[in-house]
Amino acid sequence: MTSSYQQQLNDKVERISAQFNEFNPPELEVFESPASGYRMRAEFRIWHTENDMFYAMFERNDDQQKQVVRVDTFDIADQSINDLMPVLLDALKTTPQLSNRLFEADFLATLSGDMLVTLIYHRKLDEEWEKHARALAERLNIKIYGRSRGQKVIITDDYVVEKLTVNGQQYAYKQIESSFTQPNAIVCQHMLEWACNAVQPTTRDLLELYCGNGNFTLPLSTRFNKVLATELAKSSVYAAQWNIEKNAVNNIQVARLSAEEFTEAFNGDREFRRLQEAEIDISAYDFETVFVDPPRAGIDAETLKLLQRFEKIIYISCNPDTLYDNLKTLAQTHKIVKFALFDQFPFTHHVESGVLLEKI
């Protein structure tokens, strides 16, 4: 396993180094993942037969037809998920009120030991289901969340609290069911440390676009005087604000704006009531650095123009192809001074990258 892991990682390093060579970056910093047990999320179909039920996934055969694959263990998932899988399945099998028309089971684990299981059904969930689900949650010391069409039933919580350590300091994060979180917590800690260490502490301010639940926002706040973070999704904004309060951080404001909307506000093209209601005055910030962690589609043209006005840009990317395209614009005004690869998704073609750019 170790030798095959190193080979797949070496292949990624060669591919990324070649793809970005035209930008004359510094030597690529490489952050490895554990070869197994690295994934904190797992989603399985529940497959019912006449005499049994089991976890299942699908793969396509040579004719591109889906085939059911029974899953008893899942090597890439965290050990806590693997430990829970058979115990949970046995409990479901012996409890008809929980197994009847059960369609899917999703696991969300944490390094902190918190565990949430979402059970998804093709039927309405009633009080009998809730009673048995609550008893099972207490017996297994986990959180259970039930879903069916148009219905959500929370047993205790619909979130976990993860604890990540960055440069010796621990941060608590609320991670809400079905919201985006980094699936590889070990590599995520490397990413957070790299981003923080990419810049020296300063008395100036940071702008962050696409902040999500504040994953990067919290540790980055130690490097800057103030942070203005933007995020459009309400659930992520709520989680970010919870995380800021939970970690007793007092120099962050969160604006519920998309990157495109913030660009309009920053340029004075449009006023937003959401900024006024949150008592956020963009003109009060002394920005020097901007941090971005955009979706796979990358950054739109107007936001790229906005980024070009900053002295420093920290760009975390889950898609090297859109990063490459965006750098064609950013390289007109900035140069890459740090370049990193984070193996967030071992044994796949996916790569997480990081660049620090400074104005030419």
Automatic annotation (TrEMBL):
One of its GO terms (biological process) is tRNA methylation. One of its GO terms (molecular function) is tRNA binding. Keywords: Methyltransferase, S-adenosyl-L-methionine, Transferase, tRNA processing. GO terms for cellular component: cytosol. It catalyses: uridine(341) in tmRNA + S-adenosyl-L-methionine = 5-methyluridine(341) in tmRNA + S-adenosyl-L-homocysteine + H(+); uridine(54) in tRNA + S-adenosyl-L-methionine = 5-methyluridine(54) in tRNA + S-adenosyl-L-homocysteine + H(+). S-adenosyl-L-methionine binds at Q182, Y210, N215, E231, D293. It holds the Pfam family tRNA_U5-meth_tr. It comes from the Bacteria. Belongs to the class I-like SAM-binding methyltransferase superfamily. RNA M5U methyltransferase family. TrmA subfamily. This is tRNA/tmRNA (uracil-C(5))-methyltransferase. It comes from Acinetobacter chinensis. The lineage of its organism: Bacteria, Pseudomonadati, Pseudomonadota, Gammaproteobacteria, Moraxellales. The gene is trmA.
